């Protein structure tokens, strides 16, 4: 159990990208082997397994001044594994350190069951708990940070995305035209998904949205979802995208509860309205806090966005990941849940971020007094 705690603490917050950051040790704290290990602190086999996983000579672990866990290498430098892609080799390496939890007769789970390493490690704890009852592990393990509304948002995003008319539209070359030959920026393209009075789904009409979604795509009263592309960006939905969706419950498309945006790397984001009253309140409070497609940096929501983005960037997260975490954090208490599907996948899962809480119940800050955050995700549905 102690080994499981160590690994969970080590990998908490992993995402589907990874970044190799070598840092010099400043004010090292107690190694995790001493804090969470057995009486002798002997974790040689554990560090060997992690070294094999990352392809680096791991000999110990420590923390930076902000409390982030670092792996100490044999040359005295440290490695910051802020993010690591979940893969079959990664699952196997971790599982092999726990023969009591993963005996040979139990098949290892597959990577497509999980959004990231954190999801897999929670699955490990579920298996460990199941040992005493001998019951089968759940098909879709639920993390403590994945409440029913977040699970349902992922399911809804997946189910709407799988509608044949949506898949037909996604296969239409008109949705992804080639870049202009004159060197100008590609236009965003999109469509509105409409349910007719008889319950049938109308075939979407793909529209050229010009420079941006906010001014181009018209949603009808019978629209249940919309979709648009971000051909110029690998980033998730913009502040304008959020405000546009939040306006729907009291606007001209009150039945629209899912809004998809596709980044140019193939990642598809789905914002799902889970509480129309909260979404409307979020719209009223923030409709005036836009500058272009971004939040006004001096507004309350803009300050929070910047704090979250800058925190995750400072600990080594890729800019696209830090951006999506910041967008998700601004949706806290908005009634809107941000989910995403990786390129080529039809499975959507909530992504998010929240303040880290210290053991004494206080909110954690970095060494320079800025708010510290952690990722909170759901497994794909």
What do you see in this structure?
Residues 361-381 are annotated as: Disordered. 31% of the residues lie in helices and 17% in strands. The protein has helices at residues 2-11, 32-36, 44-54, 88-96, 117-133, 148-161, 164-170, 239-246, 276-286, 300-314, 319-330, and strands at 22-23, 58-63, 69-73, 78-79, 188-194, 207-210, 223-230, 258-263, 268-273, 290-291, 294-295, 336-341, 349-350, 353-355, 373-375. The model is unreliable at 1-42 and 129-143 (pLDDT under 50). A hairpin with a 4-residue loop joins strand 8 (258-263) and strand 9. Helix 1 runs antiparallel to helix 5 (117-133), helix 3 runs antiparallel to helix 4 and helix 8 crosses helix 9. The strands form four sheets. The chain has a seven-stranded mixed sheet, with helices on both faces. It has eleven helices and 15 strands. It starts with a helix and ends in a 6-residue tail after the last strand. It is globular. It has 381 residues and is α+β, with helices and mostly antiparallel strands. The longest helix is centred in the N-terminal third of the chain and has 17 residues, at 117-133.
Mean pLDDT: 75
Structural class: alpha+beta
Helix content: 25-40%
Distance between the termini: 27 Å
Radius of gyration: 22 Å
Per DSSP, the total helix count is 11
Strand arrangement, major sheet: 6-5-7-8-9-12-13
What is the number of beta strands?
A: 15
The shape, in one word, is globular
Unreliable segments (pLDDT under 50, ≥5 consecutive)?
1-42, 129-143
Spell the H/E element sequence. Answer: HEHHEEEHHHHEEEHEEHEEHHEEEE
Query: Which range does the strand content fall in?
Result: 15-25%
Largest sheet: 7 strands, mixed
């Amino acid at each position: 159990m102690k080994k499981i705690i160590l690994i969970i603490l080590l990998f908490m917050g992993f995402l589907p990208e990874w970044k190799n950051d070598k840092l010099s040790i400043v004010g090292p704290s107690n190694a995790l082997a001493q804090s969470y290990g057995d009486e002798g602190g002997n974790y040689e086999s554990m560090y060997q397994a992690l070294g094999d996983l990352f392809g680096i000579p791991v000999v110990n672990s420590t923390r930076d001044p902000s409390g982030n866990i670092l792996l100490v290498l044999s040359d005295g430098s440290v490695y910051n594994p802020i993010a690591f892609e979940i893969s079959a080799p990664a699952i196997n390496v971790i599982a092999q350190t726990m023969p009591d939890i993963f005996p040979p007769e139990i098949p290892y789970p597959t990577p497509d069951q999980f959004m990231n390493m954190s999801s897999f490690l929670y699955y490990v704890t579920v298996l460990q708990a199941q040992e005493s009852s001998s019951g089968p592990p759940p098909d879709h393990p639920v993390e403590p940070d994945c409440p029913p509304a977040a699970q349902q948002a992922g399911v809804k995003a997946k189910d709407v995305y799988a509608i044949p008319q949506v898949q037909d539209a996604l296969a239409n070359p008109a949705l992804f035209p080639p870049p202009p030959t004159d060197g100008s920026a590609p236009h965003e393209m999109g469509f509105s998904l409409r349910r007719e009075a008889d319950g049938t789904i109308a075939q979407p009409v793909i529209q050229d949205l010009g420079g941006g979604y906010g001014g181009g795509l018209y949603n009808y009263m019978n629209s249940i979802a919309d979709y648009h592309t971000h051909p110029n960006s690998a980033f998730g939905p913009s502040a304008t995208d959020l405000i546009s969706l939040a306006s729907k419950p009291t606007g001209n498309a009150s039945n629209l509860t899912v809004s998809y945006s596709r980044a140019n790397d193939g990642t598809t984001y789905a914002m799902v309205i889970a509480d129309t009253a909260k979404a409307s309140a979020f719209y009223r409070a923030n409709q005036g806090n836009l500058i272009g497609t971004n939040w006004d940096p001096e507004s309350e929501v803009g300050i929070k966005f910047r704090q979250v983005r800058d925190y995750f960037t400072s600990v080594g997260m890729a800019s696209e990941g830090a951006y999506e975490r910041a967008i998700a954090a601004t949706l806290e208490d908005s009634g809107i849940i941000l989910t995403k599907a990786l390129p080529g996948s039809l499975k959507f899962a909530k992504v998010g971020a929240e303040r880290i809480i210290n053991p004494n119940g206080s909110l954690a800050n970095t060494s320079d007094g800025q708010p510290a955050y952690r990722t909170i995700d759901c497994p794909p549905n």
